[in-house]
Amino acid sequence: MSQADVITWPQFAAKIPSLLQGLPGLIKGLKVGSSKDKTRTVGLGWCVEQAQQKNPNGIAIMESDVVLTYEQFNGWANQMAHYLLSSGLKKGDTVAVMIENRAELLVAVTACAKIGVVSALINISQRGKVLTHSINLVSPKAVILGEELLHAYEEVNDDLVIPQEKRYFLADAHTLENEGVAPAGWQNLASLIKNKSRDNLVNSQNIYVDDALFYIYTSGTTGMPKAVIFNHGRFMKAYGAFGFGAVKLKTQDRLYVTLPFYHATAIAVCWGSVLAGNSAIIMRRKFSASQFWVDVKKYQATGFGYVGELCRYLLDQPKVASDSLNGIRLMVGNGLRASIWKEFKTRFKIDSVLELYGSSEGNIGFTNFLNFENTVGLSPFPYAIVKYDKENECPVKDEKGRLIKVKNGEAGLLIGEITEKTPFHGYTDPSKTEKSILRNAFKKGDAWFDTGDLMRPLGFRHAQFVDRLGDTFRWKGENVSTTEVELIVDSVENISETVVYGVEIPNTDGRAGMASIRLDCEESQFDFKGLLESLKASLPMYAVPVFLRISEEVDTTGTFKHKKAPLKEKGFDLNKHKSPIYVWLPRSQEYVPLCKDLQGKIEEGHYQY
Predict the structure, then answer these.
(1) Among the listed ranges 103-117, 170-184, 555-569, which one has the minimum average pLDDT value?
(2) Can you tell me the distance from the alpha carbon of 109 to that of 97, in angstroms, rounded to the nearest whole number?
(3) Inter-residue contact 275 to 471 (CB < 8 Å)
(4) Which residues contact 188 (CB under 8 A, 6 or more apart)?
(5) What is the pLDDT of residues 78-109, one digit of tens each?
(6) Taking Cα atoms as reference points, which of 110, 111, 103 lies closest to residue 82?
(7) What is the DSSP string of 75-115?
(8) Nearest 5°: CA angle at 257, between 252 and 262?
(9) CB 3.0–4.6 Å: which of 77, 219, 336, 531 could bond 481 by disulfide?
């Protein structure tokens, strides 16, 4: 880190006018998002209805050739909500929602929210055992499925707990106008809701802060995906803090979002900000670097949602004279690296980078409210950054057994204090919830959420993200659970033990997966092509290891935990390994042996990961 990243008093003082100007919005946002009244009507449905009342003829959603006003969107969601209610679903029930980024996804989630039904936002990249686990984990009473994901669902249908008569299908079309035809065994939801009322339901007036809204899946730190409870109160925090306090969109603004809406950045931060501004959200099925700025200009976007990898891909595109003539005034998201921050802002002439930090399960968040460089911003919530022992993978304690806070500019573990105003709602598994809590950290009886992230304090309550810790790493904008991948790799024939970790590739964001495997057969007899095919069938593409290390033994601690720190440090550098290494090159169908020439080409960027 450059010492310039630590914020000085003159730098902060220069931002005071901006702070004072934005203070009313920030106060309003915190007030909207932090109500203690557990009997007051809140929630996603309420937010949609507020936007509909304030801007009924304004654009709510733009997606492909679909344009919906708030009046149309709210009415469509009401029709679906009325039907789901009549089908027997009730407040507290769960529905699995599997739809790509399109209007039907937001309609389905809003419909469920209005009647207190919880949407399990299934990661659409999941397949096989991981998909089965994610769905069954929350015991859904029904599924709402987009045609584009039919094959993935049917592959695991026999292992799912969802009743066959509660399988609702939405054609891969604009189903408000084109109902399509459902396959055998599925109910066509577009047809079923057609004659239902478009009026608001009384049920949406009975939604409160503690009522569950979504299940968002996270890799957490160990094991298979975990379903994080994201309640209506947390949505109100995003709606208030980002919508009124940081992003502050106007009715004429249009926010372009290519991020997956099964993640909180898109569905809570971006969409929450749009609803607060009664503005428009522009959805795209999948990110395309070559079409990004084409879409921005086509839809006249004024802002966009991002993750760091997205920004890297945009920078890698050939420069054109019109790069800065894009109409974008702000970007909101997370993961923009300090190494490209200034270059990105300058090339695309973007005034405001609203970098944020948060996690689906976490109890604290940061926002770059004052538009400093290279920071996730400040947090109004109680947090600490403490010394961390990477080798033993635990916080450092003093002679009294208490945690030690780091100094400005020094990296440490971020922890958030668990209080009445900053609760930790945890996971569906209570034991996993408890493992994420640090007790008696600074005094007897206190409790803190362990984020599993390294951060640097910069002064004036600002911080800088450094890295993920432990058994999770970030790649392609997704968190990868090493334990989840290890379980899948271990199940492959002739593999007796696996250690998975993330390694850095120069000039790429995040860490690529690397698996150190021990074979119970000769290396020449092992089916590397079959291994890749098996992993691609069972894991999301971003979780499939890029590198393999063939190991004769696995180094462990005295308590038999795998020692990953030395492996991470060695990466895929053949100069640091005696063991053979294999690599999965982009667009290749098998792992191939890594040689020094190939290593050099990967490090020089000849292969785009």
Answers:
(1) 555-569
(2) 8
(3) no
(4) 168, 169, 171, 179, 180, 181, 182
(5) 999 999 999 999 999 999 999 999 999 999 99
(6) 111
(7) HHHHHHHHHHHHTT--TT-EEEEE--SSHHHHHHHHHHHHT
(8) 130
(9) 219
Which one is predicted more confidently, 503 or 309?
A: 503
C-alpha distances in angstroms, 243 versus 110, 150, 201? 18, 35, 25
* CATH code of domain 377-468: 2.30.38.10
Are 34-357 and 472-603 the same fold in CATH? no
If you search the block for the tokens 């098998």, which residue do you land on?
590
Tokens (6 digits) for 537 = 């069938």
8 Å CB contact between 467 and 479 = no
Q: What is the pTM of this model?
A: 0.81
The arrangement of strands across the sheet holding 94-98 comes to 187-188, 167-170, 142-146, 94-98, 118-121, 212-218, 226-231
Six token digits for residue 52: 């509909």
Residue whose structure tokens are 């478009």: 198
Cα–Cα distance for residue pair 394/387, rounded to 1 Å: 9
CB count within 10 Å of CB 188 equals 18
Residues 99 and 146: beta-carbon distance below 8 Å: yes
- State the burial class of residue 340 (Cβ atoms within 10 Å of its Cβ: 0-12, 13-18, 19+): middle
Domain boundaries, the chain: 34-357, 377-468, 472-603
Q: Which residue has the tokens 């958030």?
A: 416
CATH placement of domain 34-357: 3.40.50.12780
pLDDT in tens, 183-232: 999 999 999 999 999 999 999 999 999 999 999 987 644 567 889 899 99
Question: Rounded to whole angstroms, how far apart are CA atoms 569 and 591?
Answer: 22
Is residue 239 within 8 Å of 31, Cβ to Cβ?
no
**Is the pLDDT at 253 greater than 80, yes or no?**
yes
When computed from its CA atoms, the radius of gyration of the chain, rounded to whole angstroms, is 24
CATH classification code of 472-603: 3.30.300.30
